[in-house]
Design goal:
Length: about 260
Amino acid sequence: MNDQELLRYSRHILLDEIGIEGQDRLRASTMLIVGAGGLGSPAALYLAAAGVGRLLLADGDTVDLTNLQRQILHTPARVGWPKVESGRAALQELNPAVEVVALNARLSGEALQAAVAEATVVLDCCDNFETRHAVNRACVRAGIPLVSGAAIRFDGQLAVFDPRQPDSPCYHCLFPDTEVPDPVQCATMGVFAPLTGMIGTLQAAEALKIAGGFGRPFVGSLLLLDARSLEISRMTVPRDPHCAVCGPQQARSGEPGA
Ligand SMILES: [Zn+2]
């Protein structure tokens, strides 16, 4: 690290848990952020500010006026832009040293698997269950940790899955894809603006802990946050030994899920 970097990240380096070694690990890491919306905005801003070396930002949508109430990567002047280009502009302004790769697509199939394989950790900041399950399958297959967030109305959720740990559940253990709700609902329901900031910021914190090798990542639990009352609860999420994605028969075949 040069003098400018030592200054820029000094408040991290001063932390015993992080130090120069942890900050170096952050700079050496690549993070995939799936979704540049309400959750992806605060997550990406904190990851860029904190000095993650490379951010892959994936989203196939364009910036819409209705996004600006909570999607703080975007501005009125960039309405109509691809979200990933708007996001890249915001992130490069915040920290020019971070390499931001804009993936202007709703990732699936080979493109998703390739992006996941490049990542030290993946943040699921998307708004639909189809992508959530696809991202989970790709992470299990590649053995990459996944930080999953969700925010709808006043209700937020956070969970961390780490396929490198034998007792870690995966997203499918928690939410089997036989119970997928109507995908249209998510796009048309309201959401409390700062709730997306609260959950997205928690996602950034968990991703930094994993990549930086400090703290104790929130693996094996589900955090539920009710922003009406600020009641926060957590429940243990065990691994499902018969999970169709991370179960032993899937691991053996190398083909987790459909
Ligand atoms: Zn599973």
